[in-house]
């Protein structure tokens, strides 16, 4: 059974002064806390046991907001990362929680949206061997970890923020690993940034010939929210989609209801405290939609 990890640590220094007193992942992206988006993505992948890693200061805030996850039919656990020592450290921190199981690691400031994305996530999550990551065409690959391919479309190298990238394909912050990931993470040496880089873990799988790279096409949106401009753009994107379609993006209550993790009575109970904001009214409308559980959807 694959388990989930959300890394929501760090100082959010690129968003100062906004994040000097609150975690970046607790900031709003339009009508929901940022953390709802990666949480919903893991739920769409069929993952219901999730560890959230955050700073000791922010842990009580996340616990107040998300509780133990039971309200959404999932199980949430918490762990602390005292300092932002790199993404690979999340796998080491999570090792007791994983207890030998495969995992999906998602960054707390990454948003995913796309047609039938949930179907793709479930398909990847069902394969417990090796590692799977994504490639997403970007205009500025020097800002990301970049995956390059040979003439047959097979991944041949992965570099972290290369000065001269060999492709335009960045790796979004969502990674699927088998049970060996914590072991590989423990072998990683600190980089020039004095961090344990997730790229080094992924390269272990690449060298072993056990890495799969899935390309996210033009119908899928990947947004990160690490800067004021990126946060603003993400908010505008989510607002435009929701206003146009009348459907919410990455709403954990809706995802839980569509997946059958909670029933109509539970959904109605969740909606009641949220009625004044309009969020609760949206949840109640789901109860009147006879097609709300039909087919894959972009949640």
UniProtKB/TrEMBL annotation:
Task: Reply yes or no: does the keyword Nucleotide-binding apply.
Answer: no
UniProt cross-references to SUPFAM superfamilies, sorted A to Z: Nucleotide-diphospho-sugar transferases
| Named cofactor requirement(s) | Mg(2+)
Q: Which reaction does it catalyse?
A: dTTP + alpha-D-glucose 1-phosphate + H(+) = dTDP-alpha-D-glucose + diphosphate
EC number per UniProt? 2.7.7.24
Q: What class of enzyme is it?
A: transferase
User: Residue ranges of the Nucleotidyl transferase domain?
Assistant: 3-239
Q: In which pathway does it act?
A: Carbohydrate biosynthesis; dTDP-L-rhamnose biosynthesis; Bacterial outer membrane biogenesis; LPS O-antigen biosynthesis
One Pfam family of this protein, by short name? Answer: NTP_transferase
InterPro entries reported in the protein's UniProt record: G1P_thy_trans_s, NTP_transferase_dom, Nucleotide-diphossugar_trans
Q: Which domain of life is it from?
A: Bacteria
Q: Which NCBIfam families does this chain map to?
A: rmlA
Q: Which family does it belong to?
A: Belongs to the glucose-1-phosphate thymidylyltransferase family.
Function (record text): Catalyzes the formation of dTDP-glucose, from dTTP and glucose 1-phosphate, as well as its pyrophosphorolysis.
- Per its record, how is this protein called by name? Glucose-1-phosphate thymidylyltransferase
